[in-house]
Design brief:
The complex is a heterodimer. Chain A is 54% helix and 16% strand. In chain A, strands 1, 3, 4, 5, 6, 7, 8, 9, 11 and 12 form a ten-stranded mixed β-sheet that branches. In chain A, helix 2 crosses helix 13. About 3% of the residues of chain A have low confidence. Chain B is built from seven helices and ten strands. In chain B, the strands form two sheets. In chain B, strands 6-7-8-3-9-10 form a six-stranded mixed β-sheet, with helices on both faces. A four-stranded antiparallel β-sheet of chain B has the order 2-1-4-5, covered by helices on one side. The model of chain B has no long low-confidence stretch (mean pLDDT 91). Classes of the chains: A alpha+beta, B alpha/beta. Bound molecules: adenosine-5'-triphosphate (ATP) and magnesium ion. The site of adenosine-5'-triphosphate has 11 residues of chain B, from strand 2 and helix 1. Magnesium ion binds next to helix 1 of chain B.
Chain lengths: 383, 225
């Protein structure tokens, strides 16, 4: 019985119902997109993945420095398996494809950061040539670099021979799994450390493995506490917590996102409520006739609420579905930033649906009450 | 004289507007026997629709009583009235009042959705009603695809489908041309004569009143024979 009333209501003005539904779809698509990035901001990514731990300068993750004494300290700690470090010799985040970033890595880098891969013989060639380099696959593709090429790269770091141009020999290509972070060139930290003038004795970040990954939080705290009051304070975490920290340094993104979603939903609420109440007003004589036929005020009330739920839930489902479909593409397009940790799970879907029901009920309740109060005699006298 | 179906006693209906009281129906008495066909005439604003709505259980009186088949419908609350209307009365209005998006068949089925009838049973009832009004071949049409007279037939079928004792018609031919009006009046007449429906019809049209068994005049809230 309710179904036919809902259907009659929805298709009475098809275009309007469709447009309303469309705005619901868009709102929930936005909701889905923004919320699926949640783990990035809220730390809800679950247990921190402790396979690769990274120490970064707490106050300036991008360009801050850590002294080599930090490495010595790390070696003195219990339970640390492998240690490696990396130095950002050159990086311009506005023109990464133009000016390929140069990372100077230490001997055990591939051991610690095992998502970076290169052929064993290429790695060997790289580590036996002081000026050797491994080009990221993406970088090599863009620049047309091949194994054996001698490349000259201008930087802002001066060498002790007075030149800013660094020369390396491509000994191999590195890839990552999943494919991200392949836009770069890895060179030998020993060579860079020896040849440069500035920043001597420092690195950009230190990475290590733990004997017991469950000790991740404990070890992080020990390290960070040790340097709490140092000029070289640290922030230790895995890749996920580090991206979170970097993003939260930019601004309270979570708050901004929540504000955006709230605004979207609030607007949607007004639009739907307005549509519903207009539709009830236009249908006065329909509703009056139903009442004259014996439909009860309460039944009419429920049918209007159901109608509003119908429109919003269909729209919400489509919107969420759209999110699920586009998610992999967005993850891919974002390159390394999301690092495959964007999730849109069952819980998010349920929460979306619940929000939908709540919105539909809020949007529908006043129109439903209008319809509930409608007196047959008055409605017919007007019609 | 046969059994009394509608028994209206000392019925008054007043509207308070500002400080003034508008007396629409004034201490009115009316008995309608079963299988009667009564036309109610009178000038505009005399309270015809008001009386009709009170008898049809769409409105409640200021004082007095309305009994239908021995039931005091003036004492029912809105929920009880809804239930009562669903099975005891059929309404036919001037402007047909069909739901525009539903087919004739679905419009007629609406009252039955409130019952426990199965889909098949409902279908049968709808078919019967469509046959009575002579529209069996138009069951799949939407109101916009039907003429005024056909729409009114659908409305009549809808009023009939739950098999009520009394049909309450407010100017059922008011929006129709002469020939179509005559058709509708003949239909109502046959419902009265062949199907035993008691009919109360408000009309401005003397020809319509002519087709009823008897007629009454309402003026300033009082009945004049
Ligand atoms: N809800 C209301 N509030 C106030 N006055 C009302 C209301 N409903 C009806 N009236 C008044 O009651 C009087 C009778 O109205 P009613 O509709 O019964 O007349 P009627 O005889 O059916 O007229 P018509 O032939 O034009 O349909 C009118 O003066 C009308 O203004
Ligand atoms: Mg009237």
């Amino acid at each position: 019985m309710y179904w036919i009333l809902v259907k009659a209501g929805v298709i009475r003005k098809r275009i309007r119902s469709l447009l309303t539904m469309l705005s619901v779809v868009i709102a929930f698509f936005l909701y889905g997109l923004l919320h699926s990035a949640d783990p990035l901001f809220s730390g809800a990514a679950g247990e921190i993945n402790a396979e690769r731990m990274i120490i970064m300068p707490k106050h300036d993750m991008m360009f801050g420095r850590l002294p080599q004494s930090h490495i010595n300290y790390l070696e003195s700690l219990e339970g640390i398996a492998n240690i490696a470090w990396l130095d950002v010799l050159s990086m311009d985040i506005n023109s990464m494809t133009e000016n390929i970033p140069i990372f100077a890595i230490s001997k055990d880098y591939f051991k610690v950061m095992d998502r970076f891969e290169a052929l064993p013989e290429e790695k060997e060639a790289f580590f036996s040539n002081r000026r050797g380099a491994l080009a990221g696959k993406a970088a090599a593709d863009i620049k047309g670099w091949k194994v054996g090429d001698l490349v000259s790269i201008p930087t802002f770091s001066e060498k002790n021979d007075g030149s800013n141009v660094w020369e390396f020999v491509i000994e191999g290509i590195y890839t990552t799994n999943p494919a991200a972070d392949e836009l770069g060139i890895m060179v030998r930290n020993e060579y860079v450390e020896e040849a440069r003038i500035a920043n001597k004795g420092t690195v950009s970040m230190i990475m290590f493995n733990l004997d017991d990954p469950s000790k991740a939080d404990e070890v992080s705290n020990i390290i960070d506490n040790n340097y709490k009051n140092s000029a070289y304070a640290t922030f230790t975490g895995n890749e996920i917590t580090l991206s979170q920290k970097m993003l939260s340094d930019i601004g309270d993104i979570k708050l901004i996102i929540t504000a955006i979603i709230s605004a979207v939903f609030f607007t949607l609420l007004l639009v739907t409520a307005n549509t519903m109440s207009q539709s009830v007003r236009e249908r006065t004589s329909d509703l009056a006739i139903l009442k004259s036929l014996g439909y009860k005020d309460g039944q009419i009330f429920i049918s209007i609420l159901l109608e509003s739920n119908f429109i919003i839930l269909i729209g919400a489902s489509l919107g969420l579905m759209l999110t699920l479909i586009t998610m992999p593409f967005i993850d891919q397009a974002s390159g390394g930033l999301t690092g495959g940790i964007i999730v849109f799970d069952f819980y998010q879907v349920i929460r979306g649906i619940l929000i939908g029901v709540l919105m539909a009920s809020l949007a529908g309740i006043l129109p439903a009450y209008q319809a509930y109060k409608l007196k047959v005699v008055d409605a017919l006298a007007k019609g | 004289m046969s059994e009394i179906l509608v028994d209206v006693k000392n019925l008054s209906k007043e509207y308070k507007r500002g400080g003034e009281t508008l007396v629409v129906l004034d201490d009115l008495n009316l008995e309608i026997p079963k299988e009667d066909y009564l036309a109610l005439m009178g000038p505009s604003g005399s309270g015809k629709s008001t009386l009709l709505n009170l008898i049809g259980g769409l409105d409640t009186p200021s004082s007095g009583s309305v009994s239908i088949n021995g039931e005091r419908i003036d004492q029912m609350n809105s929920k009880q009235l809804s239930n009562w209307r669903a099975s005891n009365v059929g309404f036919i209005f001037q402007f047909y009042n069909l739901l525009p998006v539903l087919t004739a068949q679905k419009n007629i089925e609406l009252p039955l959705l409130l019952t426990n009838l199965s889909g098949a049973q409902r279908k049968k009832h709808v078919e019967t009603a469509l046959n009575i009004v002579g529209l069996a071949d138009r069951s799949g049409h939407k109101p916009s695809e039907l003429s005024g007279g056909q729409q009114q037939r659908v409305a009549i079928a809808r009023a009939l489908v739950s098999d009520p004792d009394i049909l309450v018609c407010d100017e059922p031919t008011g929006d129709l041309d002469r020939d179509t009006a005559t058709d509708i009046l003949n239909l109502l007449k046959s419902l009265n004569e062949d199907h035993g429906k008691t009919i109360l019809m408000v009309t401005h049209d003397p020809a319509a009143a002519e087709s009823a068994k008897r007629s009454l005049h309402l003026d300033k809230g009082k009945l004049i024979i």
